[in-house]
Structures are given as C-alpha cells and as structure tokens.
Amino acid sequence: MPKNKLQRFAELRTFQNVHEFLFDERDHNFKLKGKWSNGYFKDEKPIVLELGCGKGEYSIGLAEKYPNKNFIGIDIKGARIWRGSKTAQEKNLNNVAFLRTQIEYIEKCFAKDEISEIWITFPDPQPNKEKKRLTHLIFLNRYKNVLKPNGIIHLKTDSAELFEFTLETLEENKLTKIYSSADLYSESDFGDNWAEATELKTHYEKLFTAKGKKITYLKFKL
Ligand SMILES: C[S@@+](CC[C@H](N)C(=O)[O-])C[C@H]1O[C@@H](n2cnc3c(N)ncnc32)[C@H](O)[C@@H]1O
Q1: Does the reported pTM lie above 0.90?
Q2: Which of 124, 131, 134, 155 to mutate to test the pocket of ligand 1 (most atoms within 8 A of CB)?
C-alpha cells in the first residue's frame, strides 16, 4: 500500500466523524447500534443513510441543505471515506458522519426503526451477481429491519438494467412505488418528487450526465 494511503488509514481512525465496523467484528453488533441519536449526534433529528457514498459529496450536500436531519454515508473504501470526512470537517458540518462497513452488515449497525430514509446512489449494477445488487430482496429485507414504518428508499442509477430489475422486484413483492423515471433529466413533469431527485447531483451522476447518459430514479417504500 502506498505510504500516503497508509497514513490516511491511520488518520481515519482518529477522525471523530468516522466509524468502522469491519469483517472481524461481524459476530457482534456495532457499539452505536440503536444509539446513533443520543450516543453520537446528541439530538433527535431523523437519520438518513447514503449507501455506497464514495467520497461523500452527496451526503455532505444533503447535510448542508437539510440541517434539520442527520446523514450517515456508508462505504467500504477507507480512502474515499477519508475524503468525505475531511470535507465535512472543513465545512464544520456536525450533521453528517461516515461509517466504513459492508452494506451487508447494516442490521448490525442500526436498530429497528432507527433510520428515516435511505439513498442508494449509483451502486455497482452487479450484472452477473443478482444477489449482490443493493436492491435485491435480500437487501430490501435488511433495510426493512432498520427503517421506520413508511421510511423512504431512493435509487439513482445510470444502469437501465438495475432500474428495471428494481421495478420488477417492487412489483413482484407488492411494494409501494412512489415515483419513477427512466430518464430523470428529460422529464416534463416537474413535481415535488422530481425536484427532490434533481436538486443535487452525486459525483458519479455528474460524470455520467456530462457523457450524456440517462439517469434513472426510483422512490419507493417497503
Ligand atoms: C460507483 S460508486 C458511487 C459513489 C457515489 N454514490 C456517487 O454516486 O458518486 C459505488 C460505491 O459503492 C461502494 N460499495 C459498493 N458495494 C458496497 C458494499 N457492499 N458495501 C459498502 N460499500 C459498497 C463502493 O466502494 C463505491 O465507493
């Protein structure tokens, strides 16, 4: 590993706004499970997750826009979390934190009803591994165990295949679709759901839209 990366990994462990829950801890629950409000944020604001947050630009953007909510960006890549954490510190944002873990461990990290909303932003579409897709029923059932009743899930992706797969999963399991668009930026219906989905772009979304790729969006409940 390059020296710079090693230094960043060591530094990451000293950052107050970064938490880790890694493979060797999987037999236990994370110490903040059920305690994120009182034990970390020290308030009762609703908690919103971004799954696969990368360098955290979207979580940070949402945290700036919505000071009345708390945000947690989750990703397994330490170097990316390092960047997000640094930016949040530079901006003095106390309503955003980062969790370095596998999304597969979400129920080990959060208690029932602890989460109000989930954003899944540009996840790997996993073309050959359906069960690894972050909107596979296996994952939706995990989210159900941490989301409040009526908690919202948003999916933004450039993958038409993942978008269609998720729509089918919702239909097959009689889950509630609130809004969907197969081409978000070509819509002519500028309702509240559209506005919510377009007010901020993630890092990958900026790259994909610059290349003229269609962005799909799906908002649903479990
Ligand atoms: C394509 S990037 C998208 C980053 C960001 N959401 C954006 O839109 O700019 C996908 C991110 O998801 C993370 N990721 C993918 N699968 C994961 C998993 N099972 N657990 C944790 N992180 C995961 C990757 O490390 C990567 O940073």
Answers
A1: yes
A2: 124
